[in-house]
Amino acid sequence: MNHGPSKVLSLKGLTKWYGEKLVLDHIDLDVYEGQIIGYIGPNGAGKSTTVKIMLGLETSYSGEVEIFDQNIKKSGVAYKKRIGYVPEAADLYDSLTAREYLTFTGELYGLTADAADYKARLLMSVFELEEVYDARISSYSKGMKQKVLLISSLLHNPDILFLDEPINGLDANSVMVFKEILAQLAAQGKTIFYSSHIMEVVQKISSRILLLNDGKIVADGSFEQLREKNKEGSLEEIFNQLTGFNEHQHLAEDFVQIVQREQL
Amino acid sequence: MKNYQTLKILDLFRKLFEGFEIDYPTMRRMIQVKLTMDGRRPTTIMSQNMGGEKKKDANQFLKSLWFYAFIGLTLIPILFIGDNFMFKMSLIFGVLMFLIMTAMISDFSSVLLDVRDQTVIGTRPVDSRTISAARAIHVTIYLLFLTAAIVVVPLIVGVVQFGVIFGLLFVVTVLFSDLFIVAITALLYYVILKFFGGERLRDIINYVQIGLSFTIVVGYQVLARAFEFQGIEASFEPAWWNIFLPPVWFGAPFAVILNGASGVYDYLFIALALLIPILALWIYLSLLPTFEKNLLKLMDQSGPSKKKTKKGISRLATLLTTSKEEHAFYQFAERMLKNERDLKLKIYPSLGFAIIFPFVFLYNGYSAGQSFESITSGRMYLTIYASMMMIPGIVIMLQYSSKSKGSWIYHVTPIKHYGVIIKGTLKAFLTRLFAPVFIVISILYGLLFGIRIIPDLLIVLLIAIIYSVICFRILKGTLPFSQPFESAGQSDGWKTIPFALLIPVFGGIHFALTYLPFGTWAYLFILLLIVPLTWQKGLQR
């Protein structure tokens, strides 16, 4: 692969224990630039743990994590300059205004305050949020907060993007804009890690899908490849099949029956 | 964002930080952001006294310092108790360390334990050395401001009275006690987080906040009386068990230098005052990495779910309520009062006062020259009416909740009369909050005045029930737990005044009737008839 896309990220035998519980079980993975990776799996499969490890939030693990050909345990924090991150639980300092928050995070990435402010304002106005730029984030709706998080993750033009349920609370139009942004970023060679429970969106935007179950990668490939292999029509069905879940009908019946019960 | 004066002072030490390979501009920026957020965070003290005044961009933190400065005045009279420095300085450090520690826990733990730092800063290219430095500087700034606010006036008075050496000594010992407090607080968190979950820690912090609010109001009382202590000549000899009282350690240097004391204990205490803070800090710093890891426990909200519905209490609920809906709201209100920390913070201190105030009045009667016997055989038990003074204030708080948006549930469910919501809440309030207070005072009063007051106590109980119904009129039909705390205004306090004025009226009627033969029994009988009536008519919306 001399002229192919270059490798940006590689996990070798990544293993993580939480006490007695094995969360990640020898994960091996290579990721190349320009990929949009749909990172899916049931709750507790180890998705966010993987992301936390790659971001350096979780430091006790065995195995190797290389980002831009450097082992992150040894390279220091500089590699984070080329990473953007949207956390799942909209964690941000919401007593700040969007201007204050975005300028601050921009500066943490090494931008000057003025540059960060200028760029943030432009990006906010694209999302039609210019008027609330100087209002405290605590007064924002869920979708607005999500947009601020997205801007904050992209302000420094990163090469890898980790997104955890990024379209939470966005309206349909914003979702369309957002999907298009991802596609264009990928076309420019950015790598995107997209983790979500909404299978339709993952199926549509991902160029490669990774399915994690019980700390292991149980499927890896484009949607078409997965479909051929598993003979199912949609990503949702493939997900159910590979995670060994086939009792949805049964559970639903139970549920409805209990709802209809008159008295105990 | 403001360029704080504090930061400009910090700039003088820039070279020093850079010598430690700390990314100074980033650290400065982080502290600036943190200070800005501190200014916008309402503090326990302020929220208690200002009734959640509308947020202007005034710095909430700096405003709260005035209160601490005011409380610091309590230290001044202590300075004038006798000549024994060991005694008075130990006392001063006792008060000072208590104040600083509780203030740290109640107002600053949200800063120390801010898990958002993990996602907001931890994921960005900032090395851990800079993050730790920023956190340490932030704590230091907070602590210095707080300490300075409390200490500055007593310090000036002390210097004028005892000279410059006293001043220098005071500054140094105060700094060491600060160091001690930081390390101890952090170690306390460490232990709690290690053995319990984040929920437990939040509970503990909540109780400390309640304690602080309570102590501060009681502190006003003490302040008013502190000057009476002046005549006390304190003798104080150090003893071995003083080793376990950190404030005494910090008093020892004063005893040695200003009183010329030279006992073994004096020197031992000085050594402890110097070494223990440094040792504690060292332990804390070496535990820091594990501490940060345990901090992540705060992120998962789930504690071990404890399911214990006591049989007796749920039977009480069924007994007290008349319909299924009312039963539901009774239980709901009961859980809210038990679980919502912000609500507890506003209400529980008042409960403490409700217990104390009758005794304050009783004591005033005693110190006004009456003999103990004449009090216990008289009608002073009517001071129990003072415990009702808290009812209007608490009732007003019942309309608030930090999760007020959940109140849509009232409107989407097919409730025929909103009266049942209020009835259920009122009953929960009476059984969960008022009854315990009333029972405690009744038992103590029963011991003091004898069983002869039982009918009177029953009258007070019935009056309290009627009075609570009346107080619910303040809410003008606002549903319980349906308003955000931010909407609480200064006017709330004024609204309670006409209702509070009813209490002496009730007390007066009761007092007059005790002079009539069978007056109390007749009154009790009439009240028994009135209570169900008020309950039916008074709570219709």
What features would you describe in this structure?
The complex is a heterodimer of chains A (264) and B (541). By secondary structure, chain A is an alpha/beta fold. Chain A has helices at 47-54, 98-108, 113-126, 142-154, 172-187, 199-205, 223-230, 235-242, 248-260, and strands at residues 7-18, 21-32, 36-40, 62-67, 70-71, 83-86, 160-164, 191-195, 208-213, 216-221. In chain A, the strands form two sheets. In chain A, strands 6-7-8-3-9-10 form a six-stranded mixed beta sheet, with helices on both faces. Chain A has a four-stranded antiparallel beta sheet with strand order 2-1-4-5, with helices on one face. In chain A, strand 7 (160-164), helix 5 and strand 8 form a beta-alpha-beta unit. In chain A, helix 2 (98-108) crosses helix 3 and helix 7 (223-230) crosses helix 8. The model of chain A has no long low-confidence stretch (mean pLDDT 87). Chain B folds into two domains: 5-48 and 58-298, no CATH class; 315-537, no CATH class. The longest helix of chain B has 35 residues, at 128-162. The two termini of chain B are 48 Å apart. Chain A binds chain B through residues 55-57, 60, 76-81, 83, 85, 87, 91-93, 95-96, 100, 104-105, 107-110, 136, and chain B through 1, 25-26, 29, 33, 36-37, 40-41, 115-116, 118-127, 293.
How is the topology of this model organized?
The complex is a heterodimer of chains A (264) and B (541).
Chain A lengths: L6 E12 L2 E12 L3 E5 L6 H8 L7 E6 L2 E2 L11 E4 L11 H11 L4 H14 L15 H13 L5 E5 L7 H16 L3 E5 L3 H7 L2 E6 L2 E6 L1 H8 L4 H8 L5 H13 L4
Parallel strand pairs in A: 3-8, 3-9, 6-7, 7-8
Antiparallel strand pairs in A: 1-2, 1-4, 4-5, 9-10
Chain B lengths: L4 H7 L2 H6 L4 H17 L3 H6 L10 H13 L2 H5 L5 H28 L3 H5 L7 H35 L1 H32 L2 H29 L19 H14 L4 H32 L15 H10 L3 H16 L1 H27 L4 H5 L14 H7 L10 H5 L6 H31 L4 H18 L19 H10 L1 H12 L5 H19 L4
